[in-house]
Design brief:
352 residues; FAD/NAD(P)-binding domain; alpha/beta; four-stranded parallel beta sheet; elongated; 2 domains
Length: 352
């Protein structure tokens, strides 16, 4: 491979979820240019993929914000730093070069040489657990969905939602006012969701506003990718058929650390140990922030990842600019930082 085919950069961030996006901001304040790789086809990580329209209540300054709104705000915040995204790609290999850079390869053949690497990959690659229903692949993306990205898509539809956890109950309650009909299917009458959600669902059933069937979906009926009905098998072996435009199975996720497990980072129960001063791994120049890392007292919260990104950036600066002095500044009072953030331009936009 020639040097012209290698993308030489300051920092590569593996993962474009909220913590990865905020890394762009913190590194950008220190004049560190970032590229990001993510296996998904859009920024936002689990927030954008799993609950884009579900409220989040513990982001500082936002009493309530959806996953997609948070992603949009973070993208707006990092826009002045012009990050480069490499989406629908997965990091497959990483090695040290003779000039002390990290050569990173993706499954699409993209090759980077970065001075530092920040792993912000959440729990690793995640895929929805699929129910063992024959032929379900024929309907995926058309009338079988494992996540809700736009609620309006299900307006006036006949929905069958499968599952007994928080996701199944939350989307049952959120979609019921929009849909023509909603049938919740679960193999038993006990649920793993919050009791309040379960009680609200049962109240809707009692009022005749939705249906609950105890059993499992065993067969799909339809053609050309469009469902017309599903067959439910009950505990006593009897079958029932329910009209259905869209099937939403919520069986949770399968988390896989993937190739990251082979990077030699001294893993702890499939997580990456870091120190709490720099959030650096056991390998100098490789950092880990967010749910992927481990340290005593770790809390898997988005706001914790934001804090980790801020401290990580201070050590990253020393690798990128080894001969420069690191100066601590506040964005509220530093004219140089405000210039990087295009503060005046942003003020003008708000006035307009």
């Amino acid at each position: 491979m020639s040097d012209s085919e290698i993308i030489k950069i300051d920092a590569l961030i593996v993962g474009a979820g909220p913590c990865g996006l905020f890394c762009v901001f913190e590194l950008g304040l220190l004049d560190i240019k970032c590229h990001l790789v993510d296996i998904l086809d859009r920024p936002g990580g689990q927030c954008a993929e799993l609950y884009p329209e579900k409220p989040i209540y513990d982001i500082p300054g936002y009493p309530e914000i959806t996953g997609q709104e948070l992603t949009d705000k973070l993208m707006e915040q990092i826009a002045p730093f012009n990050p480069v995204f490499h989406l629908s790609q997965m990091v497959e290999g990483m090695e040290r070069t003779e000039d002390e850079r990290w050569r990173v390869r993706t499954n699409e053949g993209t090759v980077f040489e970065a001075k530092i690497v920040v792993i912000a990959a959440g729990g690793g690659s995640f895929m929805p657990k699929k129910p063992p229903i024959p032929g379900i692949e024929d309907y995926e993306g058309t009338s079988v969905f494992y996540a809700v990205r736009q609620m309006e898509r299900f307006k006036d539809k006949k929905l069958v939602i499968v599952g007994g956890g928080d996701s199944a109950l939350d989307w049952t309650l959120n979609l019921q006012p929009l849909a023509e009909s909603v049938t919740l299917v679960h193999r038993r009458d006990n649920f793993r969701a919050h009791l309040d959600s379960v009680n609200k669902m049962k109240a809707l059933v009692d009022d005749g506003k939705m249906d609950f069937q105890m059993g499992q979906v065993k067969e799909l009926k339809g053609q050309d990718g469009q469902l017309s009905s599903v067959v439910i098998e009950h505990g006593d072996g009897t079958l029932s058929e329910v009209e259905c435009d869209c099937l939403l199975p919520f069986f949770g996720l399968t988390m896989k650390l993937g190739p990251i497990a082979n990077f030699g980072l001294n893993l702890h129960e499939n997580l990456i140990p870091v120190d709490t001063e720099k959030f650096e791994t056991s390998t100098p120049g490789i950092f880990a922030v967010g749910d992927i890392n481990y340290y005593p007292g770790k809390l898997k919260l988005i706001l914790s990842g934001f804090h980790e990104a801020a401290l990580m950036s201070r050590q990253a600066f020393r690798y990128i600019y080894p001969d420069a002095k690191l100066k601590f500044e506040y964005t509220t009072s530093s004219s140089s930082l405000q210039e990087k953030l295009d503060v005046e331009t942003a003020k003008d936009k708000r006035r307009a």
